[in-house]
Amino acid sequence: MAGPVGVGIIGAGNISDQYLTNLTTFPDVRVLAVGDVIEERARAQAEKYGVPRAGGVDVVLDDPEIDIVVNLTIPAVHVEVSEAIIAAGKHVWTEKPIGVSREESRRLLEKADAAGLRVGVAPDTVLGPGVQTAKRAIARGDIGRPLFAQTTFQWSGPEIFHPNPAFLYAKGAGPLLDMGPYYVSALVHVFGPVASVAALGLQGTPTRRVQVGELAGQEFPVEIPSTLSVLMDFEGGGQAQSVYSTDSPVIRQGIVEITGTEGTIVIPDPNTFGGAITITRPLRRLFIPPEPVEQEVVDVAQEGVLSGRGVGLLDMARSIAAGRPHVATGEFGFHVLDTLLSIEEAAESRSFVTVESTLDQVGAIDAAFDPFERTL
């Protein structure tokens, strides 16, 4: 690739605003077309962000100037759309998850490999300065040897803000498949690949009701567990326990705490690109309640340039040009999916389930990575 990389977007729904806001400001890419099955929606987004072409999906697939296509469709058709992109001779950046089954997702990666094309998989939030700074701190031994992690995502559910939330309670979504990729991806960046999982799941109610927009009041079925309690065991050592729930009136989101032999590091919400990072050191003296606990808490300076969704695609574009691997690979996305599906199976069987896939090495974003720099 010489010069800015041509990018197209398929899917002009809610999340397209975040991608378009960022991708249209990165000098190394040019957003050339927006496509959607609802062509009017694609045209509205193209006009809003100054994208020159818009219409149906073929407007993107048939454009010879487009090298990478962003797949922002619903999870159930992620693989179908990604395969069409590969068939059109273009690289894929897909929203998470890579697919809703192992078989179709593996088939997609095989087709991409055969075509000499790349697949990148969200979430790229974990490639932002927040998680990546924390990852570097852990790698250099700031908390000693990582031992275990605790993560929490709980609230009352997306129907309170989303105008059409039914797909978020369908197969391939729910709090685990929709939000789990953020937390599992962050943990895999720190601990490496997952070896096995155990879980318990429940369904708060069999139906939900839309609360906003034109469909307000409409009921829809819940097809997945709406609360899961999860244990994870990592190949290289280390454990994690997590809660994913859309049944809780108490909101506790973005909690990622990793404890090592020399302290506990609190990582920013993995659904964001940055935030405060702190390390709490072990107690140095005995305390007796109600005496205050005296512990050393260290602020870790965030390294890198803060941006937003699309940075993973940008890393892929620059990596293609340089002939090196990108960080958020299809294999990484597949391992995260495999882990999440294994959690579902563990919840159904109430037993430990082995995660069959693995990873050789988990990539990282350099602290000097600047999305707003022209490099191509």
UniProtKB/TrEMBL annotation:
Keywords from the named record: NAD, Oxidoreductase
EC nos: 1.-.-.-
GO MF: nucleotide binding; oxidoreductase activity
Gfo/Idh/MocA-like oxidoreductase N-terminal domain segment(s): 6-121
Enzyme class label: oxidoreductase
Stored Pfam families: GFO_IDH_MocA, GFO_IDH_MocA_C3
Record-given protein name: Putative oxidoreductase YcjS
